Amino acid sequence: MEFMSAREAADKWGISQRRVAVLCSENRIDNATMVGKMWIIPTTAEKPVDARSIRYMQSKGQKVKPFLKWAGGKGQLLTEIQKYYPFEDGRITKYAEPFVGGGAVLFDILSRYDLDAVYISDINAELINTYRIIRDDIDELLDMLAVMQSEFVPMDTAYRKKYYLEKRERFNDLKVNGDETINIEKAALMIFLNKTCFNGLFRVNKKGLFNVPMGSYKNPMICDEANLRAVSEKLQNVTIVCGDYKQSADFIDEDTFVYFDPPYRPITDTASFTAYTENLFNDEEQIELARFVDDMHRKGAKVVVSNSDPKNSNTEDDFFDNIYSSHRIKRVEATRMINCNSEARGKIKELLISNF
Questions:
Q1: Mean pLDDT by 10-residue block, N- to C-terminus, for the chain (356 residues)?
Q2: Which helix (H) or strand (E) holds 18?
Q3: Quick one: which of 42, 164, 178, 348 could link to 214 by a disulfide (CB 3.0–4.6 Å)?
Q4: Burial of 236 by CB count in 10 Å (0-12 exposed, 13-18 middle, 19+ buried)?
Q5: What residues does 331 pair with on adjacent strands?
């Protein structure tokens, strides 16, 4: 019997060498043998059918959803973004989302595919802390949220407002003066405020303090135990980083699908809400991101970027057409749901930019 190496099998079947090794270790390639530290495979072996997404759905069960409402969340664009998922042929085995936000795309991918490695990051320290606590300390987090729900929901509006403001003040105190010992409480407060504040916004002032007023919800779901436990399970093998998107460069390679969802460029002079953190994302930084996307393209990664379409307000504004001129740009319809001016909500065009 003649044999080939894992690299030769990968080239023959059009998948990664890492994926071949996984298939061998799962006994899915007949007569594959470990010699030393290398797999050798019969030259007559056929590529196994890639059923990872089916196996994952059957073994992992519940589909998960974002645990926060997040301005700019991609739930409504998922059907468009799903068209770009490159995982079906088994060659792309990694996923990176360097502006994770509420994670609508992340959780959709985690619900569908069993990938070798997943990397998420954001510069919002409170957001990333919440992801980590859900992954690492879910029981203590749920205990805190259950208490908040049992206390808050039965109150009348006046007492709810007082309770809300106390929790907001405590969150801001922890945000400014906190340390590692109170991260669980800070994560619980982050979720509580998101579920009870106006429009589910996360907004900070120039001092970095959360300043959104209370919303008017009859029976808010503060402790969604079933989803949070499912999210915790999905995050177990995810690398979670608090930092700039550029830190993802070491993770991204030719086996990676990357989705960039940066703070959107304002489509009008007054629509400048980008205050998810104390830092703003101006045109220079949009251009710098485009250069980074080009760098990841040269690495061989498959990349999708979303942003606002300047042509909503100025048909001659070619800003993104210019900085992403070497990539494909698709205009898709979306709905702006979060705006203090109800007349500014409604159908607009957004951009999906890809290198494939």
A1: 86 81 81 83 82 40 86 81 94 97 96 96 96 97 97 97 98 88 92 95 88 95 96 97 97 98 79 48 95 98 96 94 98 68 65 97
A2: helix 17-25
A3: 164
A4: exposed
A5: 351
